[in-house]
Amino acid sequence: MSLWPSKVPQLYLFVWLWTIPFLCFLGVVGILIYVSQVPSGVRWSVFGTAGAIASSAYLTGGLAGFLFGVPRTVQGSTRSKGPTQYQGNTNLEQVSDWLTKIIVGIGLVQIGHIIPALSKFAESMKAPLGGLPSSGAFGLGLAISYALFGFFFFYFWSRSLFAQELGTFNAPQQQNGMNESDQSTDSSS
After folding, report:
1. How many CA atoms lie within 13 A of 26 on its CB side?
2. What is the pTM (predicted TM-score) of this model?
C-alpha cells in the first residue's frame, strides 16, 4: 500500500499551513523572553524593534518565496479544451544550480566577505535591541529565521493553494471561451 497524495488526509498535505505560523508564534515568545532581559525603560522599544525586524525579514523572505513558487501555465502544442493546467515553477532549481556554479567558480574566493558583512549587520542591530552583549546575535538570528519562515510559507502557499486558486479563477473564463467558440462553429455550419 502506497501513500499517494490522494489517499493522505488534507491535514498532512498542508502541515506547513499551521507549522510555520506556529514557529513564528514561538519566535514571538522568544522575543518576549529576550525583552524581559533588557532594562525596563526600553523594553517596549526593543520589543517593537524586534517585531519590526522579524516582520520585515518575513515579508522579504515571503516575496522571494512567492517569486520562486509561482506556477507556470502548461504549454502544449495543441490547444486543450479543458481547464488550464499548471506545473511547478523550476526557477528555484535553476537558481540553485546557478548559485552553486557561482559559489564553486568564484564564490570560494569571496566567501571571506560574508562573515564581516554579517558581523557588521549584527553590530548595527545591537543598540536598537537593547545594547546587551547578545543583542547582535539575537538580531541576526531573528532576521535569518524569519526570512526563512517567510520564504517557505509563501513558497509552499504559491505552489499549492495559489495554483488551486488560479485554476478556480480560470475555469469560468475558459468555459465562457469554449461556449463562444462552440457557438461560432455551430452558427457557421
Report:
1. 8
2. 0.70
Query: What percentage of the chain carries pLDDT values higher than 90?
Result: 39
- Residue 66 DSSP symbol: H
Q: What's the CA gap between 72 and 88, in Å, rounded?
A: 6
Residue closest to 163 by CA, chosen among 63, 78, 95, 66: 66
Q: How far apart are CA 163 and CA 139, in angstroms?
A: 35
The C-alpha atoms of residue 27 and residue 154 are separated, in whole angstroms, by: 18
Q: How many CB atoms lie within 10 A of CB 50?
A: 27
Under 8 Å between Cβ of 62 and 151: yes
CB 44 within 8 A of CB 36: no
> What tens digit of pLDDT does each residue of 37-83 get?
999 889 999 999 999 999 999 999 998 888 777 776 665 555 556 66
